[in-house]
Write a structure and sequence with these properties.
Length: about 130
């Protein structure tokens, strides 16, 4: 039996499903932040959200594809499980990192938008 094909057969669908799940979660919940960041401009927020979703898919699916390669033989079920755990664990860590990176970007953009709104209100009140 070719155990490496078993690894590929489990790894690819699980990776794609995890990536889609995380991406959809970010897409759905990130919209609220983007609408706030762009001061209620929903078309702009939706466009940026779709671009972020596309970039997320490209980066994660691309990385998952690069991780598909194995440099060593997988000759039994134990090595199959170990190889899968390394590959899937890496992908899960990357997805988590991307998730926190997106949250950080949203936070920074929102902070900047609030500062700009505060500065504008100060200028208007001063006049």
């Amino acid at each position: 039996m070719n155990y490496l094909l078993l690894v590929y057969g489990i790894y690819l669908p699980v990776t794609v499903l995890l990536t889609v799940w995380v991406a959809r979660t970010l897409f759905t919940n990130g919209r609220t932040f983007l609408v706030d960041i762009f001061h209620g401009n929903e078309p702009l927020a939706d466009s940026v959200n779709k671009l972020l979703l596309t970039g997320f898919y490209l980066i994660n699916i691309g990385y998952a594809t690069l991780m598909l390669r194995s440099d060593y033989a997988v000759e039994n079920y134990q090595q199959t499980v170990e190889t899968l755990s390394i590959k899937l664990g890496t992908i899960i860590l990357i997805l988590g990192g991307m998730h926190f990176f997106n949250l950080y970007v949203f936070y920074k953009l929102r902070s900047r938008a609030k500062n700009e709104a505060r500065d504008l209100a100060f200028v208007v009140n001063k006049q």
